[in-house]
Design a protein that fits this description.
Blueprint lengths: L18 H12 L8 H8 L3 H13 L3 E3 L6 E3 L1 H12 L3 H16 L2 E8 L2 E8 L14 E3 L4 H7 L4 H7 L16 H14 L2 E4 L6 E8 L7 E8 L48 H4 L5
Helix pairs in contact: 2-3
Length: 290
């Protein structure tokens, strides 16, 4: 009987398992754990000879599920695999799943909150919740910005490997949106190192004059790169306030793509209340502003 991988094959195997199919699926699952692998790694992972692994990879390559890099001979995701993955993700209605979190956090902070995803070297905002106050950051729903100019983008760029990062930013010079935008890859690399240490990313008037924000990456099981930010007029989010935003503490959102939180099943997505004092009391501050 074939050896089971408890992480990827829960439950009992079928009565008449087909080992070649099982091995091919294991190779696809391996791509969910690492970006690329060599032929020898595939054979070791399956416990088969390299010739057997090569035949499996040849079939997966023919169907477009893997693609071999002609220079490095490494195998990575093919177009068919990414097409299937994105087709499934598009049907999951991520904005609807995230909306309860965004609304609760926005209400608690009194500021605009967005959910964003990484699209190449740009960030796109998928969902938004705005507070019921007169002065607030306007919705960016559906808009796309250079990732290095936003806290949401920097939170997600900090999750990438060096190889993935350099693939997105092969050149030293970066596009600037405002006079405060980062303009070099070296400066961005330095900020991403700080983001990894702090656990959150900051944007101070780098994408829009007068606007500051803090963002944290959302851990998801699907592999999609998501982050939540809180945006405020810059005077309401001084630099000292951002230190209160601890992604492993009060503002840590739960796994938005956990099975029990999909398709209306289970309880609403939980999150922890943000700390008091993260932002000034904007409700009081805005009573005379309209």
């Amino acid at each position: 009987m074939p050896k089971r991988n408890p992480r990827s094959s829960p439950g009992d195997p079928p009565q008449y398992p087909i080992e070649s199919v099982d091995n091919a699926l294991k190779l696809i699952l391996l791509l969910g754990e690492q970006q690329e692998f060599r032929l020898t790694e595939a054979g070791t992972h399956l416990g088969v000879a390299s010739s057997t692994a090569h035949r499996l990879l040849a079939m997966l390559s023919w169907r477009g599920f893997v693609r071999q890099n002609p220079a490095t001979k490494m195998y990575g995701p093919g177009p068919a695999l990414t097409t299937v993955a994105f087709s499934v993700l598009r049907r999951m209605d991520i904005p609807r799943l995230a909306q309860p979190i965004l609304e609760d956090v926005s209400t608690s902070l009194g500021e605009t909150c967005h959910l964003g995803t990484l699209e190449g070297d740009r960030i796109r905002f998928l969902a938004v919740a705005e507070p019921d106050v007169a002065v607030r950051v306007a919705s960016r729903l559906g808009k796309s910005y250079p990732a290095h100019c936003t806290s949401t983008g920097k939170a997600l760029l900090a999750e990438l490997s060096d190889e993935q990062f350099l693939r997105l930013y092969p050149n030293e010079q970066l596009e600037a949106i405002t006079e405060n935008s980062l303009t070099t890859r070296a400066a961005l690399t330095e900020q991403l190192s700080k983001t990894r240490l702090d656990g959150y990313a900051v944007n101070r008037q780098e994408s829009e004059e007068g606007v500051a924000s803090v963002a944290v990456a959302v851990p998801v099981s699907s592999g999609l790169r998501l982050a939540i930010n809180a945006s405020a007029p810059v005077h309401r989010l001084p630099a000292r306030k951002t230190k209160l935003m601890d992604p492993q503490g009060p503002f840590a959102p739960a796994d938005a793509m956990a099975p029990e939180n999909q398709c209306g099943k289970g309880d609403p997505l939980p999150y922890k209340q943000p700390p008091e004092g993260l932002f000034p009391d904007v409700r009081e501050a805005n009573t005379d502003t309209d």
